[in-house]
Amino acid sequence: MASNKKHWWGLFIIPLELLIGDCLFPLLHLGKSPETALLASTLLFLTGFMATIYLFHDFLREQWRLYRSKLFARLLMSIFLVAGAFLLLRVTREMIPSELLQLRASTNPSPQTLNPSWTVLAAVTPFIAPFTEELTFRYLLLGKFSSKFLRVIMLFIQGILFGLIHWTTFNGNVYAMIPYMVLGVYLGLIYLLSKNIWGSIMVHWMFNTMNSMLPALLLLVLNLLGITT
After folding, report:
1. For residues 139 and 30, which has the higher predicted lDDT (pLDDT)?
2. Which stretches are transmembrane (predicted)?
């Protein structure tokens, strides 16, 4: 696996997304219009996604060439691993007192306040997020280390950081982020065991798709059929 110095620029993508989204956008008062806030947020993450693909396209191509050699078996395994991810989240949440998981009221516009077509747009960010997040946390912050000792340490560090980037999602409730910290460790183990970044990308992408894009598309279809309003 060839080392590429430009890959390290990828470490700046997620921090910049968080900085712009949480600090700059409020200064521009984009939250006054849910549609404008959603468009700005989606454009921001699409820009980060394209920057990620630009930086890592050679690495992704090389890894995909290896991954597709047993594509059906790997995808089937990914489905079981996604089920394991949902189970892991549920078990972890049940271990935390429910009162600690209560979220503070959010000032951010909720996708539920928008019509179904906008809800689909809101699902675009989690749909593409696995690429940037897996390359950042699982590859750069874990796979780049050759020492077994450092990998064990970084397995937990990257998991904690992965949970913390969901700060806005859970309105700053660290307890609510703990299940996602555990999920970050889980995805790290998948990457280490599969020895291929597509292994964790696929599990993460399927997980997010089932959580966001599929429900959004179903809601849109039901709305178009006049079943829901």
Report:
1. 139
2. 7-31, 37-59, 71-91, 118-137, 149-168, 174-193, 205-227
